[in-house]
């Protein structure tokens, strides 16, 4: 099957489905045409997926299609943007129609769920690679940047962490589990991350100051917010939201996965204490998503030790600061 038939049969399918008023022109011309409202900014993000680097050889084509779009939608959510459309640059090693069919099924399952149309792309031959660029809409001045955390903010995450990283460890054979259910759940968390677009309206309602999605691990990603905002943070480890697939592991390992493991695609964000309290009140009534508070933003000067200062993160248990020396012994990655 030639390139154009392939595109026509598998990829030219959802612009009309979603009746997108912002898309003046989708697939088929030299460019797609997007109309952005005058009071909005266009949010743009790209991610590339390579076999062997970003997904295991042998991952199902359905999962590859699903995840490569999911992680891009997650970037839009982390910016407080609504999805407008996406492009797909697909490099395929051979003319394997069944791969493309399954890949397109995964891709459009999530595209349709988030009502985001495929508006263009490129198809080439070479080692398997998927590059997706997403476009989103956010009201001018309302994009949620990494650099805007404020002293006194509550630091929150949108879900339990560490499950996807445990899935990676299981796939590499670094962990083994007797529980079939826990294994399947960990693989599901790894292969089918859920972009937290549901949080976007609440980010705007509760005036979230800064946000990002947790792709490389909570510690490293939170570090970006702290660096960009010029602040530090105290993290309370007592009730740290650890994925339930980790419950059979030692607390040390649980925290190691939850703090350092990547691929969860939950959102980490900061907001004023009062707004946090209002969000919690609403979520207790079932009127807002459940969130987990993990700490508070402090001024940079509140890190006493040089080590904590360099990292910008202080750890506490039951409110009491933990000696970094103790921590280093406790968690292998520190
Ligand atoms: P050009 O030669 O102008 O780059 P192409 O022949 O690459 O155009 O693509 C023709 C049309 O098909 C364009 O509108 C392009 O955006 C679209 N397209 C190509 N590959 C893909 C793909 N993998 N997914 C979606 N649209 C695609
Ligand atoms: Mg082209």
Give the number of domains.
2
Number of strands: 13
CATH class of the largest domain: Alpha Beta
What level of helicity do the residues show? 25-40%
Question: What compounds sit in this structure?
Answer: adenosine-5'-diphosphate, magnesium ion
Order of helices and strands: HHEEEHEHEEEHHHEHEHEHEHEEH
CATH architecture of the largest domain: Alpha-Beta Complex
Give the CATH H-level superfamily of the largest domain: PurM-like C-terminal domain
Euclidean distance between termini CA atoms: 52 Å
Query: Beta-strand percentage?
Result: 15-25%
- Spatially, the strands of the biggest sheet line up as 8-10-7-11-9-12-13
- Oligomer description: single chain
* Alpha-beta content class: alpha+beta
Short description:
By secondary structure, the chain is an alpha+beta fold. Helix content is 37%, strand content 23%. The protein is built from twelve helices and 13 strands.
Written account of the structure:
This protein is an alpha+beta fold and 334 residues long. It is built from 12 helices and 13 strands. The chain has 2 domains: 3-139, PurM-like, N-terminal domain (60s Ribosomal Protein L30, Chain: A, 2-Layer Sandwich); 146-322, PurM-like C-terminal domain (Phosphoribosyl-aminoimidazole Synthetase, Chain A, domain 2), CATH 3.90.650.10. Helix content is 37%, strand content 23%. A 7-stranded mixed β-sheet has the order 8-10-7-11-9-12-13. It has a 4-stranded mixed β-sheet with strand order 3-6-4-5. It has a two-stranded antiparallel ribbon with strand order 1-2. Helix 3 runs parallel beside helix 4 and helix 5 crosses helix 6 (180-191). The chain is globular. The mean pLDDT is 90. The structure holds adenosine-5'-diphosphate and magnesium ion. Adenosine-5'-diphosphate (ADP) binds at residues 7, 11, 27-30, 88, 90, 118, 120-123.
């Amino acid at each position: 099957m030639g390139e154009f038939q392939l595109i026509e049969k598998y990829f030219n399918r959802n612009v009309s489905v979603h009746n997108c008023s912002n898309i003046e022109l989708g697939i088929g011309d030299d460019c797609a045409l997007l109309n952005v409202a005058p009071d909005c900014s266009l949010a743009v993000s790209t991610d590339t997926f390579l076999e062997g680097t970003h997904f295991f050889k042998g991952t199902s084509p359905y999962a590859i299609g699903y995840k490569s779009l999911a992680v891009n939608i997650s970037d839009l959510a982390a910016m407080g943007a609504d999805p407008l459309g996406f492009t797909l640059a697909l490099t395929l090693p051979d003319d394997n129609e069944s791969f493309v069919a399954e890949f397109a099924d995964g891709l459009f399952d999530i595209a349709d769920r988030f009502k985001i149309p495929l508006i263009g792309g490129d198809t080439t031959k070479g080692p398997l690679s998927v590059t997706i660029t997403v476009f989103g809409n956010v009201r001018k001045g309302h994009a949620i940047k990494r650099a805007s955390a404020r002293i006194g903010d509550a630091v929150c995450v949108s879900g339990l962490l560490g499950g996807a990283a445990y899935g990676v460890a299981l796939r590499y054979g670094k962990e083994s589990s007797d529980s079939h259910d826990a294994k399947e759940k960990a693989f599901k968390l790894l292969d089918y991350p859920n972009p937290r677009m549901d949080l976007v309206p609440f980010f705007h309602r509760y005036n979230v100051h800064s946000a990002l999605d947790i792709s490389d691990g909570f510690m490293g990603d939170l570090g970006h917010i702290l660096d960009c905002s010029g602040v530090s943070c105290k993290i309370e480890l007592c009730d740290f939201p650890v994925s339930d697939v980790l419950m059979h592991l030692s607390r040390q390992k649980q925290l190691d996965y939850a703090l350092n493991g990547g691929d969860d695609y939950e959102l980490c964000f900061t907001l004023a204490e009062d707004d946090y309290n209002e969000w919690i009140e609403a979520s207790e009534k079932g009127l807002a998503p459940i969130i987990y508070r993990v700490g508070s933003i402090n001024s940079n000067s509140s890190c006493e030790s040089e080590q904590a200062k360099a990292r910008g993160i202080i750890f506490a248990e039951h409110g009491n600061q933990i000696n970094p020396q103790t921590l280093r012994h406790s968690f292998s990655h520190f």
